[in-house]
Amino acid sequence: MDNPSGSDDTAKATIEKERPDVNVIVLPEGSSVTRDLRFDRVRVFVNQQNQVVQVPRVA
User: Fold this and answer.
1) 2 assigned to some structural domain
2) Cys-Cys with 31: which of 1, 27, 35, 53 at CB 3.0–4.6 Å?
3) What spatial distance separates the first Cα and last Cα of the chain, rounded to whole Å?
4) Strand locations in the chain, DSSP E?
5) Domain count within the chain
6) 15 is a domain residue
7) Looking at the domain assignment, is residue 28 inside a domain?
8) Cα Rg for the chain, rounded, in angstroms?
9) pLDDT at site 4
10) Under 8 Å between Cβ of 22 and 4
11) How many Cβ atoms are within 10 Å of 11's Cβ, its own excluded?
12) Residue 52: pLDDT over 70
């Protein structure tokens, strides 16, 4: 994803298309998450307007 300010639906669809092997999880920014490293998971953090606030990455 080149533009981290896109919508969560667009981000999730793009990631799922490009990486069908990962589980995409959309979370509100500031959410508590586990610190375990998983190569089959991508977290997408969004603000209250459902805009992506940071570049999604495998983790």
Assistant:
1) no
2) 27
3) 15
4) 23-28, 41-46, 57-58
5) 1
6) yes
7) yes
8) 11
9) 53
10) no
11) 25
12) yes
Global pTM?
0.83
Q: Take residue 34 and report the two structure tokens written for it.
A: 């586990």
DSSP category for residue 15: H
Two tokens, residue 12: 């999730």
Q: What CATH number should be reported for the domain holding residue 21?
A: 3.30.10.10
Per the CB < 8 A criterion, the answer to whether 15 and 44 are in contact is yes
Helices (H), 1-59: 8-18
Domain of 35 in residue numbering reads as: 8-58
**Cβ neighbours of residue 53 under 8 Å, at least 6 residues apart?**
4, 5, 29, 45, 46, 47
Q: Has residue 1 been placed in a domain?
A: no
Q: Within 13 Å and on the Cβ side, how many CA atoms surround 16?
A: 11
pLDDT digits over 5-41, tens only? 567 789 999 999 999 999 999 999 999 999 999 999 9
